[in-house]
Amino acid sequence: MGSGSTYLTLTMLVIAGCLICNTKEVSAQCGGSLPDLISQCQQYVQKTGPKIKPSAACCAVLKQFNVPCACKLITKEVASLVSIPKAVFMGRSCGLNLPAGMHCGAIVIPPAP
């Protein structure tokens, strides 16, 4: 490997490292732990099955997130993976302030039933 390709490889590693750090910083701005959220809450937002009141553990993890900040990160792709009505039900069941008309990514929060 010549010195030119060594510098190119090093530059690519530095750029990749910066991108990873920035992603963590952006993620850290919203608080919470995404792996914990998935492990504790995924069963409550699945597209199939009935609405189920979330567990205390799920609510505890969910309440660690800054909802307006997290809403900015929700893309159509993310929204397509879960049941939005169940996600809103889960959030409201956990006591989160999700007012009707609030925008969360491309989703507009519906009125409470």
Automatic annotation (TrEMBL):
Species annotation: Vigna angularis var. angularis
Any one Pfam family match given in the protein's UniProt record, by short name: LTP_2
SUPFAM superfamilies per UniProt: Bifunctional inhibitor/lipid-transfer protein/seed storage 2S albumin (SSF47699)
Encoding gene, per UniProt annotation: Vigan.06G246500
Signal peptide, first to last residue: 1-28
Record-annotated Bifunctional inhibitor/plant lipid transfer protein/seed storage helical domain positions: 12-104
Keywords: Signal
Protein name: Bifunctional inhibitor/plant lipid transfer protein/seed storage helical domain-containing protein
